[in-house]
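Milestone 3.1: sequence recovery, worked example.
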């Protein structure tokens, strides 16, 4: 099957900044999340896809057609910005139908029926005769999304559409985007800084920095197995330990001599043989098990004793900072923490399953 959308070796220059050899594929009904620090080129990439910027080379292919140099109005893409960008002098209904009016489809009965169906689905029917100044942030974003998808675009482009919303509204809008993606059978490219959005919405995840794609894959694959130290730090992997891998008694062992910390019995596929300048072991906070020191012997393989230094309560989990053979950040459920009945200063036993270990080679 022909991909819905492709970008091939795209280069775009703006002053001293350049998007470099951007290549990606969006299949039918994919939801692609683009993550990266401020200034890495995410919005510039969206603007190039829409035709607002011209590439120096490379191709943009939509449904098998080269649209690299088509003007924006001929690409048929939907675009919703962070700030909604509604026309203040138009009603909600007039804002939604604005794109269709430019295509002279605003009087079409099918367009009007679709407008009212979208308004009903997005729960904005009571707002149709109001003006943007009287709407909340969440209501404005619903109107912006309705406008973007009214003309049945094959792809919807979203530039941080939820970043300015309060947590409750953001959660509701995530549900709405999930429904739009499913019911409209539309491909979505969504730029965000929010890791929860990436994990909850994306079928693909792409991490950028300094105009380059550093890693792409499924959200779980990228979060669990970052391919570089930059990606691991950007995705806020809580425990990143430098060290070296040695073969001892026929098994692979990771050693950090400064911490006097060792992880034995690594899987054989954990270490591709070769010469590497730097090796890092990655452990997410939820991958380190914590137990009362009386319940688990520190002599058990891949376990060690530590002291609780700080406890931070969250609505869904407890964040625990421990010190012992280095500093460690651990997450436990509220139930787990209550059962442990530990306080700051308590001695605990930490342990790791070797199948959770991920190594980065630089």
């Amino acid at each position: 099957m022909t991909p819905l959308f492709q970008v091939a070796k795209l280069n775009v220059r703006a002053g001293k900044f350049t998007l470099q050899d951007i290549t990606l594929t969006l299949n039918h009904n994919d939801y692609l999340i683009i993550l990266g620090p401020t200034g890495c080129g995410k919005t510039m990439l969206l603007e190039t896809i829409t035709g607002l910027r011209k590439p120096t080379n490379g191709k943009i292919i939509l449904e098998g057609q080269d649209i690299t140099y088509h003007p924006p109005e001929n690409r048929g893409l939907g675009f919703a910005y962070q700030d909604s960008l509604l026309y203040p002098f138009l009603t909600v209904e007039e804002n939604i139908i604005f794109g269709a009016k430019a295509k002279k489809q605003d009087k079409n009965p099918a367009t009007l029926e679709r407008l009212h169906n979208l308004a009903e689905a997005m729960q904005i029917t009571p707002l149709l005769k109001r003006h943007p100044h009287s709407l909340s942030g969440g209501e404005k974003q619903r109107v912006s999304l309705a406008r973007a998808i009214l003309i049945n675009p094959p792809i919807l482009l979203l530039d941080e559409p939820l970043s300015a919303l309060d947590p409750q509204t953001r959660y509701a809008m995530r549900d709405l985007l999930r429904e739009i993606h499913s019911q409209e059978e539309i491909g979505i490219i969504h730029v965000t800084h929010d890791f929860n959005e990436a994990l909850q919405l994306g079928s693909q995840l792409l991490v950028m920095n300094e105009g380059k794609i550093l890693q792409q894959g499924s959200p779980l694959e990228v979060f669990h197995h970052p391919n570089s130290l930059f990606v691991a730090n950007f995705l806020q992997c809580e425990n990143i330990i430098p060290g070296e891998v040695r073969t001892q008694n026929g098994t692979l062992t990771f050693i950090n001599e400064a911490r006097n910390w060792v992880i034995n019995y690594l899987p054989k596929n954990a270490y591709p043989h070769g010469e590497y300048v730097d090796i890092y072991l990655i452990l997410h906070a939820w991958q380190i098990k914590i137990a009362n020191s009386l319940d688990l012997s520190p002599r058990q393989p891949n376990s060690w004793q530590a002291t609780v230094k700080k406890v931070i309560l969250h609505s869904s989990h407890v964040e625990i900072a421990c010190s012992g053979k280095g500093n460690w950040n651990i997450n436990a459920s509220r139930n787990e923490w209550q059962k442990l009945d530990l306080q700051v200063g308590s001695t605990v036993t930490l342990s790791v399953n070797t199948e959770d270990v991920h190594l980065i080679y630089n």
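The mean pLDDT is 90. DSSP finds ten helices and 20 strands in the chain.
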